[in-house]
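Summary for the lay section of the report: proteins are chains of building blocks that fold into shapes. Here we show the chain for Adenosine 5'-phosphosulfate reductase and then a coded description of the shape we predicted for it.
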Amino acid sequence: MTTAQEERATDDLRALAEQAGRDLEDASALEILQWAADTFGKRFCVTSSMEDAVVAHLASRAMPGVDVVFLDTGYHFEETIGTRDAVEAVMDVNVITLTPRQTVAEQDAEYGPGLHDRDPDLCCFLRKVKPLEEGLKGYQAWATGLRRDESETRANTPVVGWDEKRRMVKISPIARWTQDDVDAYVAEHGVLTNPLLMDGYPSVGCRPCTRRVLEGEDARAGRWAGRAKTECGLHG
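The coded shape description reads as follows.
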């Protein structure tokens, strides 16, 4: 494919995403994922932090055997790895675990120990952003569990949009859901969730950069606490 053909293909994909975002704004999460499965087939995947398996479960209903991509940063809680293993064992999905180019020990040797404390943006880039960029090659569309009610930075999340950085279609099927909607779906379908959600961690990330949330705090207050940082870089 020539450069001009690639650009036209990208423009067509962007237009498709923008139109779908308008057409599917009021659709159910399952309808959105069914559209993704029908449109992209094996070139569609779900990404999961294994905070819960709601989107993976929904996607497996639309597309049994769907690829579920998980980033193993080397810094996860044991409970998160356990949730991944349980999802792989009991759900009709194909879990793909991505790892950074360097182990934690190799990163410490090159950058010094505790990079997550000194430069969390660089640590996130090396252990999350770059591996995902590599892992999503070959797909045209990816689904996330982003919700508009989680934070101000996510308030305008489209149900289907264009990921300019990766030049892919980005699908957020539960963008319009609330935490109550998530809880109701988990209860109705017996969906696996990370045990840390019941232990004061309403948002679960890497162990060094995640703490329990205090009463009255925002659900994501435990992520990079005390810093201006609110996102790892995967979503913006």
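Put simply, here is one thing we learned. The first helix runs from residue 3 to 23.
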